[in-house]
Amino acid sequence: MLQDINIFYVSISLVPALFNAAIFCYIFYVYPSTRETNIFLLFLVSLIVWQIQDTLMRLNIDYETACHISRSLDFGWMFIGALILHFLCYYTNHHVIKNRSFLIIIYGVSALLYICYLANLDEVILSYDKNWGYITGIRPGSYDLLSRAWVAILALASLGILVVEYFNKRNSPIMRKQILVLFLGAFLPVLQGAVTQLYFSAVGMTDIPVTSTTLTCFSFASVIALRKFKLFDVSSSIASGKIVKQIENGVMALSPDDKIVYLNPSACKLFGVDRHDGDLGTLKKFFETESAYKNFLKDLRFQLGKRKMESCSAQLISQDGKLLQILFTASVFDYGMGKKGTLVIFNDITELKEANHVIQMVNKRYDFITRASEEAVWEWSFEDKTIYWNENYEGLFGHKAPFGKSSYQHWIDQLHPEDKDRVLDKMNEHISKKLETRWEEKYRFRKSDGTYANVFDKGFIIYDEHGEAVRMVGTMQDLSKIKVYIDKIERQNQEFTEITWMQSHEVRAPLSRLMGMVNYIKEYGYDEEADKCFLNEIAASCDELDRVVHRIIDRVQKLRN
């Protein structure tokens, strides 16, 4: 009866069952659903069923009830070997896991042996121990011993997988630590189970039903590996399906013969296709020409053949006829049946290409304008006190500006001592008052050869969203040549003024005398003896007028030269 239950022997199977149930709940609710975690959860279910079976068999139940429990719950231990091997092969990514026949064999044989066990209508042989309760024995002429041998073979194969993968240099150090912890947790229960459940039964000895309890060592080792070494590192696969559907990048999967087998919603929207279509066809329909499609496949193969991923660009056309520019990277994935598919991740850079074209055109225009204007364009960053110059700066003033920039102090050092205070005061006043009008100033700026150039500097202040001045942009114009032209024009104007004065005064005097003597002769006549003095005056006036005319001609020739 229940009062005669041995609490200790019941607890050594019940407590591990509760412990494994807690592990099951933790993984089930905390970790996302992946194939790896799901296989491990099935292993825990199988182990919990086995431990519950052992617990029930120790509750002083009657023989008939014990037989019913044995037949109903024996599937727990019969499938646990296949689940352990499946989990470890998948976890270590052992090559056998990629072969479907491997899974068919381990689960198929286990299921077949369980069916044979149920199909045998002979009564289950149970022996009773006052401590262990009812213990299942081997029926003569049945497959019971073969079932235990099969589970032992799968468990020993699991240990072999762990040993092989531990010494596999391709595995990372952290993974090898995980494998070592799992091996230490599985070694004792597998060895103990092979001895007590297989060997003892084979030689006619009574089984010691503690294998389900010792298997908790493996689940405990899994918890250690889980907490300390991230046994289930699902960071790369958390809700991967949802992520692929929600990312803005286009994702496309190609079969080994380059047919489209998957497009995520972003790719479908970009290409204008319905992802629910049964046959997505090939990428060829998204290219204008056959040669463009072949060039894309060539770039695709080139990427797959290189270890380092590099992006390539291609021009496609959507189903509505819109030209698309994409930037893509490609990698291989396991397509199944020993074949490799191609995973293509791409970005739509059509607008970026168009914007880049506009930027190039703007830059060209800017370059042409700065060349034509022969002005030094500058940008002063207030934060790092750096001034960025265009190439005209060195051409105009001879100063080297490595990578097109110089310090703010460099500009100050080139100001003429007589102009420095005035220029800096005006600029600081402009900045402090946060004026949006143009700052401009004329001053002398020292060139690399030590001479000073007369410059006209002007610029605007740029403010951030908080109204703080962050930078200033402008242009500096060398007025030296212009000043030379102005001086020349002023000298020419002076010459013209003097010529005008000569025309209005020096030419006018002899000319007036000549006109007066001519009028006198016309009015009173000419007497050669009496008016000989008039001829001398006329000759003198003509000589004077000739000299003035020559002087004017010399001045004009000087201006012309």
3D structure, described in words:
The protein is an alpha+beta fold. The chain has 4 domains: 2-228, Rhopdopsin 7-helix transmembrane proteins; 240-353, PAS domain (Beta-Lactamase, 2-Layer Sandwich), CATH 3.30.450.20; 374-478, Beta-Lactamase; 483-560. Helix content is 57%, strand content 16%. It is built from 19 helices and 13 strands. A 6-stranded antiparallel β-sheet has the order 10-9-8-13-12-11, with helices on both faces. A hairpin with a 5-residue loop joins strand 12 (452-463) and strand 13. Helix 6 (144-166) runs antiparallel to helix 7 (173-202) and helix 7 packs antiparallel against helix 9. Mean pLDDT is 80; it is low at 234-239. Keywords: Kinase, Membrane, Phosphoprotein, Transferase, Transmembrane, Transmembrane helix. GO terms for molecular function: phosphorelay sensor kinase activity.
Summarize the structure.
It contains 19 helices and 13 strands. With 561 residues, it is of the alpha+beta class.
Strands of the widest sheet, in order across it, are 10-9-8-13-12-11
As a percent range, the share of strand residues is 15-25%
Q: Count the beta strands.
A: 13
Helix run count:
19
Show unreliable segments.
234-239
Domain module tally = 4
Helicity level:
55-70%
Distance between the termini: 136 Å
Q: Which class of secondary structure composition applies to the elements?
A: alpha+beta
How does the SSE layout of this entry go?
Blueprint: H1 7-30, H2 35-56, H3 63-73, H4 75-91, H5 100-119, E1 126-129, E2 133-136, H6 144-166, H7 173-202, H8 211-214, H9 216-228, H10 240-246, E3 250-254, E4 260-263, H11 265-271, H12 290-305, E5 312-317, E6 323-336, E7 339-348, H13 350-373, E8 375-381, E9 386-389, H14 392-397, E10 405-407, H15 408-413, H16 417-432, E11 439-446, E12 452-463, E13 469-478, H17 480-506, H18 508-524, H19 532-560
Antiparallel strand pairs: 1-2, 3-4, 3-7, 5-6, 6-7, 8-9, 8-13, 9-10, 11-12, 12-13
Helix pairs in contact: 1-2, 1-9, 2-3, 2-4, 4-5, 4-6, 5-6, 6-7, 7-9, 17-19, 18-19
